[in-house]
Amino acid sequence: MIILVLNCGSSSLKYQLLDMKDEKVYSLLAKGLVERIGMENGHLKHSPSGADAFELTEAIPDHTRAVRLVLEALTDKTHGVLNSLEDIEAVGHRVLHGGDVLFRSCLVTPEVVAQITKCCDLGPLHNPANLMGIEAVTANLPEVPQVAVFDTAFHQTMPDFNYLYGLPYEYYEKYRIRKYGFHGTSHRYVSKRGAEFAGLDPENSKIITCHLGNGSSISAVLNGKCFDTSMGLTPLDGTLMGTRCGSIDPEVVCYIMRKEGLTPDEMSTLMNKKSGLLGLSGVSSDCRDCGDAASAGNPRAKVALKKLAHDIIKYIGAYAAQMNGVDLIIFTGGIGENNTRMRHRVIQNLEYLGVKFNPEANETRGEEIMLTTPDSKVKIAVIPTNEELMIARDTMNIVNDLAQ
User: Which residues are known catalytic residues?
Assistant: First the structure.
């Protein structure tokens, strides 16, 4: 089954085209990125597998035009990989927030679109863009089935004592205020693949998955299901991130708003876009830039990186305690897969768990590898994430079930 996977942002569109034979046998036909949607200098970079990339710059007014450009690139006589659009059998969409109603991947229907729309308040940056992607595919490929795969879905197995906040219960009943968690497709993929890689039975395992990037979240996966996760109602909660502050005393919000005369929206912008590594270091939201600055002696960059490392250490410790132990800790995401220094900072604090670190293995970047010695009580591995593959798998299975 040939499946187009779309990940739509407010002004961008990432895509992959995969030929899925089954869950484990597949091939990547092409991938690409459309940027600066809504601007005169919109840009498409299309990369067919095994061939040179094709690039195009022109005005791309909306997502409908962006999807049209992607489809034209995929079927172009020179750099295309399809004979015609009829070769596309399904489209899978990454959707940020499904609330607690859309708790698994599903076929896109008017009812599903309505629920995604209701969740725009919870995912104001992502859900509207995800909807634009669905609408654009409907306009360009009206007969092709579409599947929505939710970032929040994997975390819906959390017990109520982990997803509820200590607020009056009426706010959960009225507004569904609770922990939802994010990066769920990534946590689901790496926990399953990590169990295979480490020789564990997923249904009898205690795994901690650390998705570390510009946005970071950590999950406790007990017997193959999410037991707890660090992000909350929104992706702001949890560890320090690129531009997000992570967990803070809630009264800090009120205090700064009173002192600075900020509106709720302005305070949200401060915490989501001006904080984190960027706000603490004053250098950059990129962990690599902060690392360079720290090596050059910048004290604020040093403390920002230390805080990130100790936030990760703190969640690993908490989740090991919650699950009464841990068999495997997984690093994934841009930082988790590639930042050897950050991994070292974290792992050197885990000796109390019986971790025996292999520093030579830790020099590897972007590949599956075990970072502990064979006699380590707890295994630690790097598992590169593959959210697009997970979306394609779900899309294939749902569309196949529909045909039966």
Answer: 151
